[in-house]
Design goal:
Elements lengths: L2 H12 L7 H21 L6 H9 L6 E2 L6 E2 L1 H11 L1 E4 L2 H13 L7 E4 L12 E4 L3 H14 L5 E5 L10 E5 L8 E7 L1
Parallel strand pairs: 3-4, 5-6
Antiparallel strand pairs: 1-2, 6-8, 7-8
């Protein structure tokens, strides 16, 4: 580990939330949740699959998890897989531009990217886990595609809006996301 990285690691490790302002802690929680949502969804995309296949073939067991899988691996392989997964699919031009700008502002261009595309044109057949935030009209459109393409056992986490034709295996309410908003997550298994 180079000296700069070592210094950053030790500094970060020594941080205590009490040393930071509540605004910094709240914003960090928000950004971490945002990253996790994008990385979970991104772990399922075709562009992430070569890294996940390499991870599956490696004999590098360890204490870390590759997001979107049950795989345990070394910190180095987990960082590679999780970084590769940190991208998303976005059709809306404005949201695409906002997401791309957010990635640039956060300095994540080397680890995250946005795919400007149509979610109705994606191949979901190899996915084990999907995380979505879609309005009911989009859920109605994507449901037959999911029913046709998703393999048995695939997990779907829907944010705020449920699939009316399906029964959720679990529902989780988040009363306050740190910015005064409440959310509901629905977990489905195909």
């Amino acid at each position: 580990m180079d000296p700069l990285t070592r210094t950053l690691v030790f500094f970060s490790h020594a941080l205590n939330s009490k040393d930071l302002g509540s605004e910094v802690v709240d914003r960090t929680k928000y950004l971490l949740l945002d990253y996790l949502g994008v990385a979970i969804a991104g772990s399922l995309t075709e562009s992430s699959q070569p890294v996940y296949r390499m991870l599956a073939r490696s004999a590098s067991a360890g204490p870390c998890t590759a997001i979107g899988t049950a795989s345990r691996t070394s910190p180095e392989f987990a960082a590679l897989a999780n970084g590769a997964a940190a991208h998303s699919v976005e059709l809306d031009d404005t949201l695409y531009k906002q997401s791309a700008l957010r990635i640039k502002t956060l300095g994540l261009e080397s680890r995250a990217r946005i795919i400007h595309g149509d979610l109705l044109q994606q191949d979901y057949s190899s996915y084990d886990l999907l995380t979505i935030y879609l309005l009911p009209v989009a859920i109605q459109k994507i449901t037959p595609i999911f029913e046709k393409q998703l393999k048995k056992g695939t997990r779907i986490v829907a944010h705020d809006f449920e699939f009316p034709q399906w029964t959720a295996a679990k529902v989780l309410d988040i009363d306050d996301d740190g910015e005064g908003r409440s959310h509901r997550l629905y977990l489905y298994r195909r």
